[in-house]
């Protein structure tokens, strides 16, 4: 990353480092070891992503307000692609006596075997954020209801906001997430839906693996290879931050429009000054809460686990 990009990202990374100091290890169960209350484990993706920081805090606040109803263990991995670490967390939660695991899987297929082993051990599995692959679940004989947003629709709506700022035939690029993650696939598809409908030319689709630094490098390469590029659609806000830094370093502020997905706090000043055109708010502070409440309903009321669609709102310049 060049000096200008580093300066742009430094304040964000300093604050992030302070947060991670207290979140690098699994949190202890909230509420003690009362056997009368079910122990629910929240297993997230990267703690380096502000979205999952917000998710964790929302879950903790929810447990604090309902401390008489359940215990909570909060976990996350260090980066978006550390599948082995997330598998290990699932196994740890089974060993620690979790009655339910609410998981945002880093991969839609690779986590299924570990989750099946957990289910076979009597643990309820609730899938949030990134939907597990249906055929892989069926092959494993695992039922895991999905509680989360329609990522394709949300991305399409973000893309439609961007399209109003462009004209037919304009060149655009997509920076997608981890290619094996279903939510990443759906967001890419939603962006492509919007761009095709508006007559834009998608010149390249590349993965930023959900990470800011990776997306910064990818965006810099795209800008160099496609000098007439008019917009970059990023499948999450972390990657949008990296793309903004690349555009700034290339001296193309105002010439290349950027959109994201997640509505993290770090994006607010960029939305305000127009460096980001739009993002999608899937209400990260409530997403784990929806999953936890679904798990508690199954455990308490013996209801049949069912999918639940959660809201997505589009956020533009205030």
Characterize the structure shown.
- By secondary structure, the protein is an alpha/beta fold.
- The chain folds into 2 domains: 19-149 and 283-311, Response regulator (Rossmann fold, 3-Layer(aba) Sandwich); 150-281, Response regulator (Rossmann fold), CATH 3.40.50.
- It is 45% helix and 19% strand.
- The protein has 11 helices and 12 strands.
- It has helices at 3-21, 50-65, 83-95, 112-120, 134-140, 151-163, 182-198, 212-225, 237-249, 268-272, 284-301, and strands spanning 39-46, 71-77, 100-103, 124-128, 146-148, 171-176, 201-207, 229-234, 257-259, 278-281, 308-309, 313-316.
- The protein has a 6-stranded parallel beta sheet with strand order 2-1-3-4-5-11, with helices on both faces. It has a 4-stranded parallel beta sheet with strand order 7-6-8-9, with helices on both faces.
- Helix 1 runs antiparallel to helix 9 (237-249) and helix 8 (212-225) packs across helix 9 (237-249).
- The longest helix is centred in the N-terminal third of the chain and has 19 residues, at 3-21.
- The protein is elongated and about 60 Å long.
- It starts with a helix and ends with a strand.
């Amino acid at each position: 990353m060049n000096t200008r990009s580093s300066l742009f990202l430094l304040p964000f990374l300093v604050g992030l480092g302070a947060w991670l100091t207290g979140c690098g290890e699994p949190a202890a169960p909230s509420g003690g070891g009362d056997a009368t209350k079910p122990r629910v484990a929240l297993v997230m993706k990267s703690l380096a992503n502000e979205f999952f920081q917000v998710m964790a805090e929302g879950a903790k606040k929810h447990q604090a307000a309902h401390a008489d109803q359940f215990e909570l263990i909060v976990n996350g991995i260090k980066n978006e692609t550390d599948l082995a670490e997330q598998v290990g967390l699932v196994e740890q939660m089974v060993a620690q006596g979790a009655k339910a695991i609410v998981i945002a899987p880093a991969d839609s297929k690779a986590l299924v075997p570990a989750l099946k082993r957990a289910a076979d051990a009597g643990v309820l599995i609730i899938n949030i954020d990134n939907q597990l692959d249906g055929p892989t679940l069926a092959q494993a004989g695992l039922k895991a209801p999905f509680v989360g947003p329609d990522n394709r629709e949300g991305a399409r709506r973000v893309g439609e906001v961007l399209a109003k700022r462009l004209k037919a035939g304009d060149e655009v690029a997509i920076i997608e997430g981890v290619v094996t993650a279903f939510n990443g696939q759906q967001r890419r598809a939603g962006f492509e839906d919007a761009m095709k409908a508006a007559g834009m030319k998608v010149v390249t689709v590349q993965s930023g693996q959900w990470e800011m630094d990776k997306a910064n490098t990818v965006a810099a390469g795209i800008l160099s290879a496609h000098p007439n590029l008019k917009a970059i659609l990023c499948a999450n806000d972390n990657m949008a931050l990296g793309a903004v830094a690349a555009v700034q370093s290339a001296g193309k502020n105002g010439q290349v429009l950027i959109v994201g997905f997640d509505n993290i706090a770090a994006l607010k000043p960029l939305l305000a000054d127009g460096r980001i055109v739009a993002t999608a708010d899937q209400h990260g502070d409530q997403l784990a809460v929806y999953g936890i409440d679904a798990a508690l309903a199954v455990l308490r009321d013996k209801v049949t686990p069912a999918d639940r669609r959660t809201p997505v709102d589009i956020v533009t310049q205030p």
